[in-house]
Structure of Phosphoribosyltransferase:
Amino acid sequence: MEDKELLILNKQQIQQKIDRIAYQILEDNYDEQEIIIAGMLPRGGFLATRLKKVLDEIAPFKSKVLTIDLDRFSTSLNATVDADIQQCNDKVVILVDDVLNSGKSLAYGFGVFLDVPLKKLRTVVLVDRNHKNFPVFTDYSGIALSTIIKQHIDVKLSENGEEDAVYLR
């Protein structure tokens, strides 16, 4: 049986979603001095960097990107962060990933910040699949799709943005 592929978001639509999410983040954090955008590698890191780029153009506050490298197949939290996590003390942290499916990755992402006194923690995903096994929700999403479990969302993101696309397979 041949796998069918349906284009959900093209490069331009992905950038429009990122722009819209950046404006939502700005509206919710206008009075902040600095926010931290924590991207979950690999594609969440690309999204975090792009959100920062838009926010740098429109927001009065500073933003920093840090990345979280997470073992998504571990049965316990096994993550590394590319910066000192204490820089997040008393700041707004925006946790970014490409797809929210079961919620496990975002739940582990939350775990990185459990011992850090944050002002608030918000989540961003490009695609919310609505198949949560964990009580995790997203504050900002590009698109919400009700898919069947057998379907797969394939997010193609590159550092330079040239080959961006989201497919349903």
In short: The CA atoms of residues 46 and 97 lie 9 Å apart. DSSP finds three helices and nine strands in the chain. The longest strand covers residues 62-70.
